[in-house]
Amino acid sequence: MANEWATFGADLHLELRGPRLRAGLMDALREAVRSGRLEAGTRLPSSRSLAADLGMARNTVADAYAELVAEGWLTARQGSGTRVARRTEPRRAEPRRAEPRRAEPRRPEPRPGARPAAAPPARALPRPSAPAHNLKAGTPDLASFPRAEWLKAYRRALTAAPNEAFGYGDPRGRIELRTVLAEYLARARGVYARPERIVVCAGFVHGLMLIGQVLRSRGVRDVAIESYGLGLHAGLLTGAGLGTPVLPFDERGTRVEESGPLGSAGAVLMTAAHQFPLGGALPPDRRAEVVDWARASGGFVLEDDYDGEFRYDRQPVGALQGLDPERVVYLGTASKSLAPGLRLAWMVLPESLVGEVVAAKGVVDWVSSAPDQLAFAEFLGSGAYDRHVRAMRLRYRRRRDQLVAAVAAHSPETRVSGIAAGLHAVLALPPGTEQDVLRAAAWNGLAVQGVDQFRRPGVPATLDGLVVGYATPPDSAWQSALRTLCRVLPQAPGGG
Amino acid sequence: MANEWATFGADLHLELRGPRLRAGLMDALREAVRSGRLEAGTRLPSSRSLAADLGMARNTVADAYAELVAEGWLTARQGSGTRVARRTEPRRAEPRRAEPRRAEPRRPEPRPGARPAAAPPARALPRPSAPAHNLKAGTPDLASFPRAEWLKAYRRALTAAPNEAFGYGDPRGRIELRTVLAEYLARARGVYARPERIVVCAGFVHGLMLIGQVLRSRGVRDVAIESYGLGLHAGLLTGAGLGTPVLPFDERGTRVEESGPLGSAGAVLMTAAHQFPLGGALPPDRRAEVVDWARASGGFVLEDDYDGEFRYDRQPVGALQGLDPERVVYLGTASKSLAPGLRLAWMVLPESLVGEVVAAKGVVDWVSSAPDQLAFAEFLGSGAYDRHVRAMRLRYRRRRDQLVAAVAAHSPETRVSGIAAGLHAVLALPPGTEQDVLRAAAWNGLAVQGVDQFRRPGVPATLDGLVVGYATPPDSAWQSALRTLCRVLPQAPGGG
Fold first, then answer.
1. Cα B120 to Cα B439: distance, rounded to the nearest angstrom
2. Are B372 and A367 an interchain contact pair (Cβ–Cβ within 8 Å)?
3. Which chain A residues are closer than 8 Å to B365 by Cβ?
4. pLDDT digits (tens, 9 = 90+) for B199-223
5. Domain A153-381 falls in which CATH fold?
6. N or C end of chain B, less CB within 10 A?
7. ipTM for this prediction
8. CA dihedral defined by B226, B227, B231, B237, rounded to 10 degrees?
């Protein structure tokens, strides 16, 4: 099927296919290795240079490389760059199989002393082409999408829609949706929201891109970001021509003193309710401090409230936006609470930004599908959204409890943090072991990410840990994923 | 409700509200005049300068000015700029009402000798705040949206969707949709389409923006455009950093000889099947010529096939893309054939562009809602789309015939052109009368546009005419809209 070829280096072609760019690049690289087009030992271009060749964000390529290193297809050594893993070099253990399949990569070498319980065998064995278990963070349990309830809302909305709803829409989004969103956000997240300040967008990144454009055209040069986060978001700001100075962090979370990088920034992007991926909530004094900074400097706080609905042990932390609606841009999404596939998100804007954001959005004039917006309005207004969030909160909380219990039983020295809220937790690992655990996970068919993957360039690598998205697998796959996770964690002395 | 204020000039504020930017700006200007904040005779800022203040495209402001001039709120005189129409100056006819309502603008002065049949009365009378009749081109009959059939397709699609459909999607769009689109486009439009060359996007402008970005990053400097077209499209290219040299046209349509502006362009944007708004199809020799240019120069033809499904008297003209799929980017949309509110469009790309376009789209990673894409796939695959297009083709053809007959009866000297296809026709007017007819139309509560509004800057104003979107009104409003149109057209000597 796929036959798109992108030039790679001098004359090597990579087949890029979906579903996601990084996944596509990884598949293409695996295929090139598997087929022998990329020979063992070949040095790959730098992530920067390959990214430029492919027109991708550098982080996408770097992430793909990191995962393929973790999966054993590639190796990365200081001073030697990223290379295709050698598959014929003898390893120290005796061969168990006389003829390892040529098309499969060799497992990577585990570092002595850091060998996880379920370490790969000494010789290469065929690995499944796709991971059997998925604990990557960022996606809710898609199997729990409330199809029947959504369909009911869609039918009602489509039946009741005025004819003009099928025309070119208001770039702000349907008024019906903005009206119920205002009510919901005030009630559930403490957001000061009025329909005329709300702009519906097609995902958090769409909103961030629009805000970035507006800030840049206002003359803002830097938007400060947290020490850990998604490379995609930083890349989006960079792409809008903005610098992204990195805020330091300490054991209490992100530091927001004005003497730091905030001093020169025009805005700051924060996951205040639930830091992604580390998991903490910004302490109240720092919430006040960052809003004070915005007031004093005329800057803006961009609040990425990606999973604010999910807090387990007490009331959700209200949105920062409530502290000062004129200085905080609130960005929310249905991607975690409902499904990313709907492409529904929203911004609540300071009055002073509404006109510019709407103008920026209106130039391209694309809005989410009007029937979808109306269906979501119906879904929210009928209480179906609240019911769904409540049900998912119970389910995710149960999984979180099972995760905490299982880790305590199998790997008592592993500390689980960031568990008060959200859809993921961080498992702190002994210093220097993150890559080994990731390799063991890949070997065991478990897709999971390390905190290092979210570290901003220049931030010291002081943390080792796994980011475990416990919401990701469907119920049917959750227990086996959890068992596999426990197998690859550092074992208690004498345990296992 | 609305309380967004944009600074206007020194200290005047304009209230901007939906549903569309231009409409919002027009409302705000009307309100400012009505309330007296903008006094009669006040000179408005240039469209360029107001556009910069508001962060809008200049064409949006220029169009709003033009329509308000046509509606009589503003005046535009050579050398005197755009001003608020004077409301107290005595006109030549006797007053019929002693006290014209202060809050309403005066009607504009009709030029002597060009007075349409249904000219405004000599003194200002209250006008309806929204036009009663709408014959603006660009929107299909929204009342004919096939709600029941669409809902059926949506239900089937949502029920059958795999769980992963609710996750983050492939930036190219769902494979189910791309597969049926490939089949449909090959069958209905003669497009050489394979699923892996198709990228689903959220409207034509979204696709054009992506292509513009990719071309610009390839080093293309100019994308040639036609003499008449939408300012939005040109503005989008300009916004991507591209120049937009204008191709000349003659009585056979757009001229595409290499010695013209094409010579230095890296691509050309064309409405080859049905020029918008003038209505002709590009003659076969010029189709071949522009593709030959693309082959010889390595350039691309961007084919805007916005209403290719609608051709009335013979087989549709096949897409230009079939001539050379490696040099023509095909852009299609459901906005005219089904409804703009769905935000569904598609590109069929040369193999060499797929990777870059997908990468550009993937950076922001927003795609149309997956359930919508699956519903559209079901709608296409089940034959419901073909049935809908056939039904609408009959309906629109009947309206076209009624338009032609009515114009022939009421204004026999008005030539109707561009009627072989599409959802609009052009009514040629006597030289110098377009603005008068538009004023009469506005006065009679008829929203309709003149060809001059679509003329690119620098193109000589050699045509006077109305662009009549006969698909726009619902059936219930069509006859009265047509009657109103006939009233404002130039009358036959002694006729009327």
1. 8
2. no
3. 203, 205, 232
4. 999 899 999 999 999 999 999 999 9
5. Aspartate Aminotransferase; domain 2 (3.40.640)
6. N
7. 0.73
8. 40
